[in-house]
Amino acid sequence: MIRMLALSPLPEEGAGCRFRIAQFIPYLRSAGIDVTLRTLYDAQFFDLVYRRGQYTKKALQFAKLSLRHLDTLRHTSSFDAIFIYRELFPIGPALLEPLLAKRRAPLILDFDDAVFLPHVSDANRFLGALKMPHKLSAVIRQSDRVITGNEYLAAYARQFSNAVSVIPTCVDTSKFVPRQQPVTSHDRFKPVVGWIGSQTTGHYIRQLSSVFSRVHQEHPFVLRVSGALDAFELSGVCVEEPPWTLDSEVSLFNTCDVGVYPLPDDEWSKGKCGFKAIAFMACGVPVVAAAVGANCEIVQDGINGFLAANEDEWVEKLGRLIADPDLRRQFAEAGRRTVEEHYSLAVHAPSMEALIREAVEHSHSD
Q: Is 126 exposed, middle or buried (0-12, 13-18, 19+ CB in 10 A)?
C-alpha cells in the first residue's frame, strides 16, 4: 500500500480540490494508494474568503487555519508521496515546498489554473502584492512530477521540468448523468438557460447581459443562475437564483435545458480547463461556450455544442438552441459521448494511479 498525503488550499467545496483530487481517492484506494487529504481552508472559511470586507475576521481565521496546516506538514515523513494541488499557501513565497522536496517522498504538483499570472478575486484585491505568482516556477523545478489540466498550462510547466503530464479535468460519469424526467420552471413553456459558477466567476455571467436581453426578445426563456456572489437582475428576463450546495451540484446542472459558459479572451482564461462545459455535457445539457482555451478542444462547434467568439455569435447560437429542441437533443447526446470518451474519471483515474506509482518507484530507485 502506497500512502500519499494530498494538500490543497481549497476544501472540497472548491471545484479544483473536488475534481483534481477528491474524486480520484476511491479509485486510488481500490488500487492500493491510500490518500489522506488535508486542506488549508475549511468550508466555513471558503465561504467567507470570497465575500467582500470582513478583513479582520478573514485575517484571524486565515492565521488559525495556517497554523493547523503547518502542523500537518510536520508528519510528511510517514508518507510515500506528497501531492500538492496548486500551492501550499495562496500568499507569500515558496518557503516550505523546498523543504518537502528534500524529503524521501516524491513531490507531485498539480495545477489547473494559470496561477503563474497575477490574478486575485475582486473581494481580495488588497492581497495582490502578497500573491507572488512567479513562485510557481520554483515549485515546478522542485517537484518530481507535474500534472496540469491542459496543454497551455503544460507548455508553461515544461519550461522548468521534463516530467510534465496532462490530465484534463474530468467528472465521474456515474454521478454526472442526464436527467431522467423533464424539468420545468415555474413557466413550463419556457426553456431554462443555466449558468452554474462560483463567487469568483460571477462577473463572467454579467458579460452576457446584453446577449440575454437580445435573445429573450425573440426566444423567451428562464435564466437560472447559481453560485454567483451577487444577485443577478436583468430587465424583462425571469431570473431564478437557486443556491449552490455541494449536494445539489448535479441536480442544478440537470435543471437546465441549455448551459452557457462565458469567459473573456485573456491569458487567465486560457488556463481554464473547461470544467463547466464538461459538467453540462456530462449531464446531457447542450452548451454554448466562449471560444477560448480548452473550450475549443472540448466543444466541437456545431457537433457537440456551440462556440461563440463575439456577442453576435452568442445571440445567434444561443437563440438557435432555445428555439430547436431537436438540435438540443442532438448536442446533448454528442456531448455526453465526448465526456464519456475523453473527460471521464473512468478514463483518467488509471493515468493518475500510474503517475503516482511511477513517481514512488523512481524515488526508491534513486
A: exposed
Element (H, E) at 99: helix 97-101
Residue bearing cell 474524486: 23
b/e per residue 325-353 (b: at least 16 CB within 10 A) = eeebeebbebbbebbeeebbbebbbeebb
Q: What is the CATH number of domain 192-342?
A: 3.40.50.2000
Identical fold, 2-170+345-365 and 192-342? yes
Count of residues in the chain = 366
pLDDT tens for 3-33 read: 999 999 999 999 999 999 999 999 999 999 9
pLDDT for the residue numbered 188: 56
Q: Domain 2-170+345-365: which topology? A: Rossmann fold (3.40.50)
Name residues whose C-beta falls within 8 Å of residue 295's C-beta, 6 or more positions apart in sequence: 261, 263, 272, 274, 277, 289, 307
Count the Cβ atoms, other than its own, within 10 Å of residue 281: 32
Residue 233: band (very low, low, confident or very high) from pLDDT cuts 50, 70, 90: confident
- Maximum Cα–Cα distance for the chain, whole Å? 67
Give the least confident one: 31-35, 61-65, 74-78, 130-134: 130-134
Beta strands in 180-319 (DSSP E): 192-196, 222-226, 238-240, 258-261, 287-290, 306-308
Q: Which residue has the cell 510557481?
A: 136
Phi, psi of 196 (to 5 degrees): -120, 120
pLDDT in tens, 86-99: 999 988 888 888 88
CA pair distance 361, 352, nearest whole angstrom: 14
- Domain residue extents for the chain: 2-170+345-365, 192-342
Does the reported pTM lie above 0.85?
Answer: yes
